[in-house]
Amino acid sequence: MTWTAETRSQKLVVDETTGGLEGATSTYEKRLGDLEGLYLDGEAFAGRAATDAETVVYRVHDLRPSDRPGDMIVGTSTLEPGTIGDEYYMTRGHLHAIADRPEVYHCVHGHGVMLMEDADGTTDAIEMTPGTVAYVAPGWIHRSVNVGDDRFVTVFSYPADAGQDYAVIERAGGMASRVIVDDGGSWKLVPNERYTGR
Amino acid sequence: MTWTAETRSQKLVVDETTGGLEGATSTYEKRLGDLEGLYLDGEAFAGRAATDAETVVYRVHDLRPSDRPGDMIVGTSTLEPGTIGDEYYMTRGHLHAIADRPEVYHCVHGHGVMLMEDADGTTDAIEMTPGTVAYVAPGWIHRSVNVGDDRFVTVFSYPADAGQDYAVIERAGGMASRVIVDDGGSWKLVPNERYTGR
Fold first, then answer.
1. What 3-state DSSP class applies to B121?
2. Of B65, B114, B132, which has the smallest distance from its Cβ to A137's Cβ?
3. Which one of B11, B99, B116 has the shortest CB-CB distance to A132?
């Protein structure tokens, strides 16, 4: 015996349409009312939040076998379609608390953008439809944005010790670029006028 | 500046039917002639290898950004359908060279089994169809088996420092269990009579 296997393997089942994950051991969701300050257009947000505060904007289901270095977490991220002002629905986004940890996202439904930013404020973006895999390199802040009319669902995996740092985005007034509605229902990147730099 | 991002993120595109991976940086394939000794029925193997030695049995495409601890490798595994004797086509299988590293497999096409075995010789198996995710826990030997009539395609991710130990299977005469054809085109596990124990 030169090695041990302390935990059991797990079968999970992804529902590509709803983003459900049978076998997940934890779940969290963000409702519109939880996301004050995330969108640039505060007036549009307040108007929507007055009536739709309980509307779910995104949901995460995952399996977290451990937080041991070398282990992995796997789950699904489901972002509803919608806009606040000219800005598409997005997740809060994060840098990993251990910043040099990557993340893999595999789109299984919908149409989204993985918006990324490095320590110098450089923006990168990967457009995703079913079959697209985004390898988010170590050290890149990242957030999912739903630029389609349907749910944007990804299957993600990342190192179990990575953690999430959300404050790195809030401290800078957001990310350097915003993903907004372009003419004809498409999307484009524009500078975030509230951004204070890294 | 409290962190750096030394590498760029990457967009990959999975072809679910062929297992192709646009954006992959490395590929390898195993042909029938490479797999002598893998299947129990040596006579059936020799008969097939006489004519089909060049037939591709499985192919792996991946992105290997680094082999640094904390980074990740992502790719696709594509296993053709077929049998040798009563045994379904399978990969050689491996334990990670750093044994306590897990792996995540997400089936996007076909019908397969993730066959696993721990250090005590305990067998585990996860049946996979599109949407099934197998979290292969740290310390488990694992191999993919195609029990369907079509290609079995998975998207996998694992820690970049994990490595592969193939010899652990060869040394023991294979894995404790074999996946063979059951009546009616289904599959079942049977003890591997050549297995010498861990």
1. coil
2. B65
3. B11
**Side-chain half-sphere exposure of B25, counting CA atoms within 13 A:** 9
Secondary structure letter of residue A33 according to DSSP:
G
Task: Give residue A185's pLDDT.
Answer: 80
- CA distance linking residue A12 with residue A117, whole number of Å: 31
| Per-residue confidence band for B1, with pLDDT thresholds at 50, 70 and 90 | very low
The 10 Å Cβ neighbour count of residue A169 is 20
Amino acid found at A61: H
- Which residue in B9, B14, B136, B156 has the most chain A C-beta atoms within 10 A of its own C-beta, making it the best mutation to test that interface? B9
How many alpha carbons fall within 13 Å on the CB side of residue A11? Answer: 14
Which tens digits make up the pLDDT trace of A94-149? 999 999 999 999 999 999 999 999 999 999 999 999 999 999 999 999 999 999 99
The three-point CA angle B30-B60-A72 to 5° equals 135
Q: Which of A2, A114, A119 sits opposite B5 (nearest CB)?
A: A119
Q: How far is B187 from chain A (nearest CA, A)?
A: 18
CB A80 within 8 A of CB A56: yes
Q: Give ∠ CA A70-A72-A73 in degrees, rounded to 5.
A: 155
Residue numbers of A between 101 and 120 with CB closer than 8 Å to B: 101-104, 106, 114, 116, 118-120
Global ipTM: 0.96
- Give me the residues of A, 138-197, that contact B with CB < 8 A: 138-140, 155, 157-159, 161-162
Percent of residues in chain B assigned helix, strand, coil, to nearest 5: 10, 45, 45
CA of B47 to nearest chain A CA: how many angstroms apart?
Answer: 37
pTM (whole model) above 0.90: yes
Q: Which residues of A touch B64 (CB under 8 A)?
A: none
Which residue, among A146, A140, A130, has the nearest Cα to A58 in the 3D structure? A146
- How do residues B104-147 score in pLDDT, each as one tens digit? 999 999 999 999 999 999 999 999 999 999 999 999 999 999 99
Tell me if A189 sits within 8 A of A179, measured CB to CB: yes
Give the residue among A70, A60, A81, A64 at the shortest CA–CA distance from A14. A60
